[in-house]
Amino acid sequence: MTELAFGLADRPQRDVVEVVLGFARTLRHAGVAASPDRVEAMLAAVGHLDVLDPTDVYWSGRLTLCGSPDDLDRYDAAFAAYFAGEAPRKSRTSARQEQRLAESAPLSASAGSGEENEEAPDLQAAASEAEVLRTRDVSELTVAERDQLRRLFALLVPAAPMRPSRRRRPDRHGSVDMARTIRHALHDGGEITALRRRRPRPRPRRVVLLVDVSGSMSPYADALLRVAHAAARARPASTEVFTIGTRLTRVTREMRLRDPDKALAASGHAIPDWSGGTRIGEVLKAFLDRWGQRGTARGAVVVVCSDGWERGGTELLGEQMARLHRLAHSVVWVNPHKGRAGYEPLTGGMQAALPAVDHFVAGHSLAAFEELAGVIENA
Question: Which stretches are annotated as coiled coil (predicted)?
Fold first, then answer.
């Protein structure tokens, strides 16, 4: 790999390495297990190819980073979003091209040479923009940057937290399954030749998202609803989505639509108090009275997305948060302002809510949303 990689002769070699590592990180968030050895193989492959050619970059990553047919669609979506372009289409000679690229991608890292191509798109610049965009505050983005961020949101696949269940499944380890052991012994003439074992089968834990759509949260409401849509699409049977403001609105059905833009449009029609006031305590009480006490919040991971500006009484908010904490398995509070330097939770609403919060996280950028997905998974 030379310093001419990606057409930037005056930049050090590590720029190309950083781009590939950033792309691998994006793939892992999209659900592709881009392991370190596969990333090393892609770096070696790129060193033998023309890094200015998007087709060469595309196939070098596809042949080295994908481990199963299920990874191909996710890889295409990640490539298009990360490099801000469409993935190259397969041609008639794709099989021959795959064979040629596979032969030229040894696992041992070695330097190669590439010639500049002025007509090729600057993939490194597009990748750098995507990396910077991940950490930008969504309230400060332009219209074009928001459009690009929407493509990156498609790669967010939150994993559901798991809980043990009474049902068990056969396994090499675990407790002895006497019924299966005796049943197999009967087939062997009554002699026990091996102990059959079983262990609890984990089940997805319910995730409940309460998204504040009041006026103070309007710069972040769209992004937070896209996070909720990603969670609802990943686990539709175990995810509930509500919006909070001056009233409680259930938008779970709208969030299950496949297209995120259609889901948000349908939710917008269903939400009567968009950009209105905030009465978090009253709305939480309504949620717990109607939904939480009946089982929606019981044993679930409840995620409250709000800046904590409470127009009602903070005493009521504190009481309802304590009540929620007793019902839920874990309570996560997402505050967009927490990602800003020097932020302190000084508002009355946050002061009342924090004693009942298990995880207090930021929610201002795509990188923060990716961290939130990890917090929910491990809650």
Answer: none
